[in-house]
Amino acid sequence: MRVTHTRHQRMWSPHTGFSTGDYSLYMTNVTEKDGGLYTCRAEGEGLLVHKRVTLRVIKGIVLPTRAHTRVYAAVGSAVTLPCVFSHGSTPSDPVWEKTSGGSNPLSFQLPSSSPSSSSSSSSSPSQSPWDVSASIGVVAPGDQGTYRCSGMIEGCRLSRSLQLVLSHGEVTPKM
């Protein structure tokens, strides 16, 4: 099989996988403009493979910017756990979950997930609809752990995890 390869700064296809049937196209820094119809064409040994696929780019969670971001807080202080979807992308069914760590169960739910919340934690009513960040009014030792926020955008559940790290004195964020 004869394969030609040109690597672009944002898109490439690792032709080493062709022998196993992997014709993947990898992209970095994907934007909505990258959406559309893509064609893969490979030929060799009298054989021509021609496949098309449509890429639909769904806006995602922009804050925190990456999974497993650490948020630092002192015991007794207030803290906001960020979860902001792309501007204009209002998630349906936003949910916060505590997935591990600490002795306290999840101490808050967003108003849109639960009609009533009796905890000291909440989502601010002044937030934009794509900001589903949650606040803990008074951080307790058992609040430390891993949390996940999620919401539905265009039929896909998008989620982001973050870790709440506690100190028992003043908090000095790491840079």
Summed up:
The chain is mainly beta. Helix content is 0%, strand content 41%.
Describe the overall structure.
- Helix content is 0%, strand content 41%.
- It is mainly β.
- It folds into 2 domains: 11-55, no CATH class; 61-167, Immunoglobulins (Immunoglobulin-like, Sandwich).
- It has a 4-stranded mixed beta sheet, with no helix packed on it. A 3-stranded antiparallel beta sheet has the order 7-11-10, with no helix packed on it.
- It starts with 10 loop residues before the first strand and ends in an 8-residue tail after the last strand.
- 16% of the residues are buried.
Taken as a percent bin, the fraction of beta residues is 35-45%
Number of strands: 13
Write out the strand line-up for the largest beta sheet, numbering strands in chain order. Answer: 6-13-12-9
Proper CATH architecture of the largest domain: Sandwich
Distance between the termini: 50 Å
Number of helices: 0
Shape: elongated
Q: What is the SS-derived class?
A: mainly beta
Q: What low-confidence regions span 5 or more consecutive residues with pLDDT below 50?
A: 1-7, 111-123
CATH-defined topology of the largest domain: Immunoglobulin-like
Main sheet specs: 4 strands, mixed
Q: In sequence order, what are the helices and strands, one letter per element?
A: EEEEEEEEEEEEE
Number of domains: 2
Mean pLDDT: 77
The portion of residues assigned to helices is under 10%
Q: Can you say what the CATH homologous superfamily of the largest domain is?
A: Immunoglobulins
Described by its quaternary structure, the protein is: single chain
The CATH class of the largest domain is identified as Mainly Beta
Radius of gyration: 22 Å
